[in-house]
Write a structure and sequence with these properties.
Layout: E1 2-4, E2 17-19, E3 25-27, H1 35-40, E4 48-50, H2 56-59, H3 62-68, E5 72-75, E6 85-86, E7 92-95, E8 98-104, E9 113-117, E10 122-126, E11 129-130, E12 134-135, H4 145-158, E13 166-169, H5 179-190
Parallel strand pairs: 3-4, 4-5, 5-6, 10-13
Antiparallel strand pairs: 1-2, 2-3, 7-8, 8-9, 9-10, 11-12
Helix pairs in contact: 4-5
Length: 192
């Protein structure tokens, strides 16, 4: 099961996805709300935190999560504060009941990852693409529009459009209706 713990929070935060199953995980930890309480309302413990990237709105709550849970923190940038394991391009991590492959997808930020499980039919897209076919900002430090477009193209090449059932993004609603088409729309929009 995947639940967005940041849903309807009126603060500056990313989405925070709690994935339950064999290996209970958080995908991103958000910012400016009590994520520890939100986790404890649903589960007793966490096994892993996986970061899509290290912008503050995605990692601001990491210290409180580390204070509360003895948890592995996985990210592309192994030198980032709190990270205990580097997850490189093509590496895998178990989230819930499924293995996810890491896709290094810079353009929004150099350490950006998308996480894809073909078996689950799920893509965690971070800030690469969003519902409605929009895409991540490229005007911030480390942002680059041509690189972002290449990253979206890579996701389109790797993800099985027929099998993708859920697209969970770093901000806004998740997409469960035609998620592959949402990625295609973001690719088109990013080119203009």
């Amino acid at each position: 099961m995947i639940a967005n713990l940041a849903l309807d929070r009126d603060v500056f935060t990313s989405n925070v996805f709690l994935v339950t199953g064999e290996r209970t995980a958080l995908v991103d930890v958000g910012n400016e709300f009590d994520v520890v309480e939100a986790v404890r309302d649903r589960v007793d413990d966490l096994d892993v935190v996986v970061l899509t990237h290290t912008h503050y709105d995605h990692v601001g709550n990491l210290e409180s999560v580390l204070d509360a849970f003895d948890v592995e923190v996985v990210a592309f940038d192994g030198d980032a504060d709190g990270v205990t394991r580097t997850l490189g391009d093509g590496g895998t991590v178990q989230i819930g009941d499924h293995e996810y492959v890491a896709l290094h997808t810079p353009g929004h930020k150099n350490d950006h990852l998308c996480l894809y499980s073909e078996a689950a039919g799920v893509l965690f897209a971070g800030d690469l693409v969003f519902a409605g076919g929009s895409f991540g900002r490229t005007d911030l430090d480390e942002g680059d529009r041509p690189t972002l477009i290449e990253s979206i193209e890579r996701v389109l090449d790797v993800v099985d459009g027929a099998e993708l059932r859920e697209l969970h993004t770093g901000h806004g609603p998740s997409v469960e209706s035609n998620p592959y088409q949402t990625i295609q729309m973001a690719h088109q929009a990013a080119q203009f």
